[in-house]
Amino acid sequence: MSRRRRPQQQRPARGRPEPEPRVEPQPPRWGLGKSVAVALGTFVVVTLISWAVGAANLGVALGIGQLAFGLVVVALMVWR
Q1: Cβ 64 vs Cβ 56: under 8 Å
Q2: Containing structural domain, residue 60
Q3: 52: region left, alpha or beta (phi > 0 left; psi from -120 to 50 alpha)
Q4: Which of 39, 33, 64 is nearest to 50 (CA)?
Q5: What is the pLDDT of residues 4-19, one digit of tens each?
Q6: How far apart are CA 38 and CA 31, in angstroms?
Q7: Which one, of 43, 42, 39, lies nearest residue 62 by Cα?
Q8: What's the total number of domains in the chain?
Q9: pTM of the full predicted structure?
Q10: Is 44 domain-assigned?
Q11: Which alpha helices (H) appear in the chain, and where do they start and end?
Q12: Residue 29: half-sphere exposure toward Cβ, Cα within 13 Å
């Protein structure tokens, strides 16, 4: 005569926490074109503002625009 056990509910092993559900990454809200447009627009606007405010010459204004462009590109990469 054999004894059959009733099936038990599955539960995690002792001492181990239950695995967390996986979260699927969401696609970016912006495409590459919009990101490039934001970065280039920032470059142009900051260059024009720095030149109008009184940069020594256009080269200095472009240098300030390059710094702003680099900061925006890094911010977009981190944000996405």
Answers
A1: no
A2: 32-79
A3: alpha
A4: 64
A5: 666 666 665 677 777 7
A6: 11
A7: 43
A8: 1
A9: 0.64
A10: yes
A11: 32-53, 58-79
A12: 2
Tokens for 45?
């606007």
User: Measured between alpha carbons, how far is 38 from 72 in angstroms, rounded to an integer?
Assistant: 8
**63 assigned to some structural domain:** yes
Q: What is the dihedral of CA 61, 67, 73, 76, to 10 degrees?
A: -100
Cα–Cα distances in Å, from 74 out to 32, 47, 60, 67, 79?
A: 14, 18, 22, 11, 8
Q: 12-38 pLDDT, tens per residue?
A: 567 777 778 888 877 767 788 999 999
User: Is residue 14 situated within a structural domain?
Assistant: no
Please list, in sequence order, all residues whose beta carbon lies within 8 angstroms of the beta carbon of residue 53, skipping any fewer than 6 positions away. Answer: none
Asked whether residue 7 is assigned to any structural domain, the reply reads no
